[in-house]
Amino acid sequence: MTDATATPTPTKSLTTSDAHMKKRNAAEKRFKAYGIAAIGAGLFFLVVLLASILTNGLTAFQQTFIEVPVYLDPAKLDKKGNRDPEEMAKVSTFGYAPLLQDGIFAQVEQKGIETPLAKSKDMKALISASAAAQVRDRVLANPDLVGQTVNVRFLASSRVDGYLKDRVTRESVARDKNIDAEHLDLVDALRAEGMVEKRFNWDFITGADASESRPEQAGIGVSMIGSFFMMLVVLFLALPIGVAASIYLEEFAPQNRFTDLIEVNISNLAAVPSIVFGILGLAVFIQFMHLPQSAPIVGGLVLTLMTLPTIIISTRASLKSVPPSIRDAALGLGASKTQSVFHHVLPLAMPGILTGTIIGLAQALGETAPLLLIGMVGYIATNVPDGIAAGFLDPNSAMPAQIYEWAKRADPAYYERAWGGIIILLLFLFAMNAIAIILRRRFERRW
Amino acid sequence: MYDAPFSEKNVTSNAVKIAADGVQVYYGDTHAIKDVSVNINDKMVTAFIGPSGCGKSTFLRCLNRMNDTIDICRVEGDIRIDGEDIYDKRVDPVQLRAKVGMVFQKPNPFPKSIYDNVAYGPRIHGLARNKAELDEIVEKSLRRGAIWDEVKDRLHAPGTGLSGGQQQRLCIARAVATEPEVLLMDEPCSALDPIATSQVEELIDELRRDYSVVIVTHSMQQAARVSQKTAFFHLGNLVEFDDTDKIFTNPQDPRTESYITGRIG
């Protein structure tokens, strides 16, 4: 009786751990610490990257504008006085530039701003070279403005813009032939009068690229359209071809040497450097097929080739992940192979296929190297394509190519625009990834 | 010794539905089924028993040509349903499978509604001319699957949300919805608990009135309970095929006796 209630002393207590156990626990803790450190390092670099992109790029979305009343002198703009747009079109931007200078100078005198710049011509350094064209377009669209004094808001020169953004300083202008310290003093005074200010610059998002000497005018809009048409080509070629190829390989193809060879080659193609696809595009699409150079259709075809392996691999993986019991169930009911694939397997594989496609598209959207070889880098896209056919066939650039182009230009004002372009590109990538996640959630089913 | 059968073991029909003669199956170089000849009667439950890997499921899958989907599988010999060679070049396996339905080991409803699960077969075979007819087929099939009362209020709920036993009965209902003449069942109860198993077994006995049922099972008790004929497979050979009573009470082959008494397997 007493034996039954006595507690036996344990040979080895569970509450103390021996040396071996301690070693194992230490190893476990160490490994966890390594993992946390790795994630920490990754997050740190991500924060640094985002911070540097945002600090360098956000300023590109603001631009310095000058707003003054300008007297549109009929003696200069419409010498015959009949307001005939065709006659007035003969007056080039050179005829308009002095009017803007006069406009600013009149304000300087009127407000009594003291400046050693005593001539109207001295105002030239403040004004963007694009401003005269902007006013000319406005006048030609509405000839009745001639003879009136109208309030005009136009771009300041990139030096003035840089001064407001702390890129141009008094030290740096000492070596600058385009602008002097006196101009900067004048800008300060005009700013105090509210005639010079920074505003949000829609033209950066919607506008076209500009020549090397007018960074203040450059925008990413036209190359965005180029990217859009390329993505259309990629989507409408790579998705059907990729999905059809994967379905055939995964569901119908016999297992033999030939299909093995195809499989190995698809995997290899996914690892081929993108510039190889670029030179292939140059040789086949441009030199052999004589498609137009620098055209989004060629870019789209090259990126399609590049994206296909990604789409095929992810589509096959998602087809493979559909349980075979679903195929058996359909076949057992007398569904044909095609019916079982299209009624049951494909809908279940859809989230994976869409995710893979969008990731492939995002990859293609950010690809620059193949575009180098088909002439989409270095082309200055100054015009919005005229219609859908032109969108595919007219020379254009693409967003990453445009960013690369800006980054290599000499004027530091373009540096800011390159970062700004990166922000826009990243926004597109975020949006596409968000769509991928939403689609996956939307189509996901459990079984 | 074994549980009492649900019904009398008298043979109700002697009409041969499926006649297999000298069937050989190879998986690549492996000889999986060796010269199996068996006659399966109409309106009767035939059970295939045997240890794992003996080829009973492989043979079952020959009867509706599900083995066609496996590239390396090769079938030789002669299998006739109602006197027609099902491996004839002119036979479309899709048509064959509509005539020979199949229920699998693991319940595998489509990730769709209960209604769509049952309606899928009739839809692809064009068995219903309109919605009302389709509704009728679905109800009739679910009643035959002995699951109508449990699901009639939630026909549009997903079939995957049912319990395991309900899912399996749904799969049986789905199989009978295409109006097959033969029903193949590959270990239909191995993933089910005892209560669900007894429900499915009762159902199998019901189905015998309209179909020729072939069932592969690991459970000898189940074979004894539901079948009228039993075939014992061992290492790819058909060792013995006879009335269920006879197999379990008076086996002719020593291997059969060893298996049913638990010495091999």
Automatic annotation (TrEMBL), chain A:
This protein's UniProt keywords: Cell membrane, Membrane, Transmembrane, Transmembrane helix, Transport
Give a yes or no for keyword Zinc in this entry.
no
| All residue ranges annotated as the ABC transmembrane type-1 domain in the record | 224-436
Q: What CDD domains does the entry give? A: TM_PBP2
- InterPro entries (alphabetical): DUF3333, MetI-like, MetI-like_sf, Phosphate_PstA
Q: What is its main location?
A: membrane
Q: Disordered: where is this region?
A: 1-20
**What segments bear the compositional bias annotation Low complexity?**
1-17
Question: Where can this protein be found?
Answer: Cell inner membrane; Cell membrane
User: Which parts pass through the membrane?
Assistant: 31-54, 224-249, 269-289, 295-313, 345-366, 418-439
Mention any one GO cellular component term assigned to this protein in its UniProt record: plasma membrane
Tell me one GO molecular function of this protein.
phosphate transmembrane transporter activity
Q: Which domain of life is it from?
A: Bacteria
Question: A single GO BP annotation from the record?
Answer: phosphate ion transmembrane transport
Q: Pfam families recorded for this chain?
A: BPD_transp_1, DUF3333
* Entry membrane topology: Multi-pass membrane protein
Please state which protein family the record places this protein in: Belongs to the binding-protein-dependent transport system permease family. CysTW subfamily.
PANTHER family registered for this protein in UniProt: PHOSPHATE TRANSPORT SYSTEM PERMEASE PROTEIN PSTA, PHOSPHATE TRANSPORT SYSTEM PERMEASE PROTEIN PSTA-RELATED
Q: What is this protein called?
A: Phosphate transport system permease protein PstA
Give the source species.
Thalassococcus halodurans
Automatic annotation (TrEMBL), chain B:
Q: Which domain of life is it from?
A: Bacteria
Q: Where does this polypeptide localize?
A: Cell inner membrane
Checking SMART domains in the record gives: AAA
Every copy of the ABC transporter domain together lies at 18-260
One matching Pfam family is: ABC_tran
Annotated signal sequence range: none
User: GO cellular-component terms in the record?
Assistant: plasma membrane
The cross-references to InterPro entries, in alphabetical order and at most eight, read:
AAA+_ATPase, ABC_transporter-like_ATP-bd, ABC_transporter-like_CS, P-loop_NTPase, PstB-like
- Alphabetically list the UniProt keywords: ATP-binding, Cell membrane, Membrane, Nucleotide-binding, Phosphate transport, Translocase, Transport
Q: What is this protein called?
A: Phosphate ABC transporter ATP-binding protein, PhoT family
Its biological purpose is as follows: Part of the ABC transporter complex PstSACB involved in phosphate import. Responsible for energy coupling to the transport system.
Q: Which PANTHER family match?
A: ABC TRANSPORTER I FAMILY MEMBER 17 (PTHR43423:SF1)
Organism of this sequence: Thalassococcus halodurans
What Gene Ontology molecular-function terms does this entry list?
ATP binding; ATP hydrolysis activity; phosphate transmembrane transporter activity
Q: Which NCBIfam families match?
A: 3a0107s01c2
GO terms for biological process, alphabetical:
phosphate ion transmembrane transport
**What membrane topology is annotated for this entry?**
Peripheral membrane protein
